[in-house]
Amino acid sequence: MTDLEKEQLRIKKPVQALALIPKKGKLSVVARKLYNVILHSTIGQIAEFELQGKEVPAEHLFEARLIDLVHPIQMGQSDLRAKAKEYFQQMSEIRLDWEAPDARGLGKWTNLGLLAEAQLDRVDPENPKSDVVARWAFPPTIFKELRHPEMYAQISIYQIAKLSTYEAVALYEICARYRTNAAGVTSLKEQQWWVKALSNKVPDIDPKTGEPKWREWRKFKDEKVKKAVAEINEQTDLSVELMEKKDGVQFAVKRKASEFEPIANKLNPEIAEVAIKLGLKLTDIAALMRNGQSEAGLKIALSKMANQDPANITRKLAYLNKILLEVNPFIGDGVTGAAANSPHVIRQVPAIVKQPEVKMAMSYKDERRSEIRREFMLLTRDEQRPFAYLGLSELRAAKMANAGMSLKVEAGAWESAPILFSKMVDHYATDRYGADWAVEQTSVEPSTE
């Protein structure tokens, strides 16, 4: 996952969907992670329908490219697309009791699957390398709650992607429900409730009782729970502690200090948009800027690069570096601060005669966009959200929507996607000031005739 995608993307997950107690079948850790991404994608698609004043049809199948669904949880694992069919089959076949872990929860849903229907189809059946599109539908009870959850927990898709065991993911989701709880502890539950809620399958039947032979809490704690607690504490934004009492078990939950650190400055959206159009990776552009490359130098270099025939550019980043070597000496320092001594930063060409600093003149459209962008940033997240959906739709139509962008829209993290944020500003400008918002109005002298 790239630096720009390492935001805490959160899903508003109904509390009834936090504790999943298996009744039939098995759910792997990857399938549970993937299901969270599917829920997130669904919520975003429902919002798009509502933005257009439409109801989601009863027979509607939600859909997304498979690569977009697996991207947020890939995290260095092998290609998940190859096993996607297996994961979707697990989601369709498993039966669970869904329960809110809160003592004041909303009860539970009994014996429901994760999906009512699932399909995987290639866009071009004749081409084995073409994109695979996933389509799915939910049981009515779950779908109703996704549209308007009465109570929900904020679950970070990025955080659970870092966990390797089912028990750790299941425990993280339950603990996330209490991340802002004043008492700082989960509800107190009996030991066997935790064994069931953190297990991914039903155990074998005990021939003596005819009931599932669940693991004893003492053994389950030593084998699974302690490892899950250690992994959550080491890998995620939460710190949890097991608390055993006479009448049950609960966990203390704290947010780590790093969660409150300010988000680093993002790429200039205009630079990001041009870079993407030229086929450059935003991670490469961000690395240049971290190493001290100035925005002014990048703007000039990207502009020069855009005037070239792309067919003649085989190594885009190397070509950009070459142009930056040429332009940096003419824009003052070109690189800034201590980063100028970095071995990774592009060096300036020494000049015998110091060249005068070149000031970049902004076009009227750039100046106007900057003004409107500042105005737009004063809006609340809810006021900005409709423009996020409009921008996402435009980028999808142009095939410029990168993996995970719809997740950022739903999470309200659109500023971490510069090209999307730029489109949002443009749509706001058109809505607020009309289609000619970027056209300079020239005054006409009255006729003297």
**Helix amount, in percent?**
40-55%
Strand content: 5-15%
Query: What is the terminal-to-terminal distance?
Result: 68 Å
Query: What's the alpha carbon Rg, rounded to whole Å?
Result: 26 Å
Q: What structural class results from the helix and strand content?
A: alpha+beta
Mean of pLDDT = 80
Silhouette: elongated
Major sheet strand order: 2-4-5
Q: Could you walk me through the main structural features you see in this protein, from its secondary elements to its overall organization?
A:
- This protein has 449 residues and is of the alpha+beta class.
- The protein has three domains: 3-258, no CATH class; 269-341, no CATH class; 364-433, no CATH class.
- 41% of the residues lie in helices and 13% in strands.
- The protein has 16 helices and ten strands.
- It has a three-stranded antiparallel beta sheet.
- A hairpin with a 2-residue loop joins strand 9 (238-245) and strand 10 (248-255).
- It is elongated and about 85 Å long.
- The model is unreliable at 1-6, 260-265, 333-361 and 444-449 (pLDDT under 50).
List keywords for this structure.
449 residues; 16 helices; three-stranded antiparallel beta sheet; 3 domains; alpha+beta
Strand and helix map with partners:
Layout: E1 10-14, E2 19-24, H1 29-51, E3 62-65, H2 66-70, H3 84-93, E4 95-99, E5 108-112, E6 117-122, E7 132-137, H4 140-147, E8 152-156, H5 157-161, H6 166-176, H7 191-197, H8 217-235, E9 238-245, E10 248-255, H9 269-277, H10 282-290, H11 295-306, H12 316-327, H13 364-376, H14 381-397, H15 405-411, H16 418-433
Antiparallel strand pairs: 1-8, 2-4, 3-7, 4-5, 6-7, 9-10
Helix pairs in contact: 1-3, 1-15, 6-8, 9-16, 11-12, 13-16, 14-15, 14-16
